[in-house]
Amino acid sequence: MAETHSLQDLQQPTVSSKVFIQRDYSSGTICRFQTKFPSELESRLDKQQFEETIQTLNNLYAEAEKLGGKSYLEGCLACLTAYTIFLCMETHYEKVLKKIARYIKDQNEKIYAPRGLLLTDPIERGLRVVEITIFEDRSIGSGR
After folding, report:
1. Nearest to residue 130, comparing CAs of 44, 65, 64, 60?
2. Which of 63, 13, 20 lies closest to 38, judged by CA?
3. 20 with 49: CB under 8 angstroms?
């Protein structure tokens, strides 16, 4: 029996490989990723663009973990309201995580997707790695 596929199935890119950017624990346990450029990306991405993306992510995670007056106020309000305050307001950390998700989406649309790459939000991998998926280059295999 012939197998049928929708047009969308036929246009799905095939994953060639994945690159994982590990956490950098040299400065302690703060959320920070290594900026070493992986050789697998050399033909697809400029080293400067990669380092800028990772550095921006590192800066955003540092901002999320920064303790300030607002964080202390959130903690005090949480204690006073038996943590029910978080049912009607977002924490500073949650706001920055949304900012990071928007940044990654923007980077994927402008830089990574046009080059056959996909940057995965580190929160989806437990903040352990930044995953970059490399898709097959269809222009190479189009002669089959």
Report:
1. 60
2. 20
3. no
Q: What is the pLDDT of residues 71-95, one digit of tens each?
A: 899 999 999 999 999 999 999 999 9
Task: Locate 24 and state its tokens.
Answer: 């950098």
Pick the closest to residue 41 from 29, 49, 33 (CA basis).
49
Q: pTM for this one?
A: 0.82
Q: What is the pLDDT confidence band of residue 10, given thresholds at 50, 70 and 90?
A: very low
Single out the residue of 125, 119, 127 nearest to residue 96, CA to CA.
127
